[in-house]
Design brief:
This protein is 55% helix and 8% strand. It is mostly helical and 186 residues long. The protein has 2 domains: 2-55 and 103-185, Alpha-Beta Barrel (TIM Barrel); 59-100, no CATH class.
Length: 186
Amino acid sequence: MLQATEYSKAPVIASHSGVWELSKHRRNLSDEQLKAVGAANGVVQIVGLDGFVKHYPEKGPEVAALRDVIIAAAGDAEWDGAKHAMVPEYVAGMEVINAKYPAATMDDFIDHIEYTVNLIGIDHVGIVSDFDGSGGLEGWNSAAETMNVTAALIDRGYSEEDIAKIWSENTLALWRRVDAVAATLQ
């Protein structure tokens, strides 16, 4: 990733990212990586995805262990969500696990945006969703809740101009810069 920012003739984009300092997910970016994208005149798109915004490495193994218990009790060889996900013991077990590891909230998500803005500047930050398969986060679980993100940015004091940059203008400007570099290489 650092080599891409160093050697690319065009600015880079880091989509579907979060901040390592706030959530230790393996795909989140360290301060060094965030700064490299900013220095390369690129854009970091902060993803509204629960597991990136608030990562708990211990949760996966606990869910896997619970599933193993349910599979064994049913006498099955493997997990079948359609069959096992509504078993009362699984539902109760997941309630305990989810209480122990609460879902990411809108405030958590905006913390990632704000951290990145403060570190590399408003012109290098964008937003991206990820609703296919993994869901979003508390307050932004579908496109129907997208206004909640804008409202949260307003609540944090972001101007209309800054919100427009974060939502799309920064990424569109990035693609124009990339196109300009591509034209010089033709």
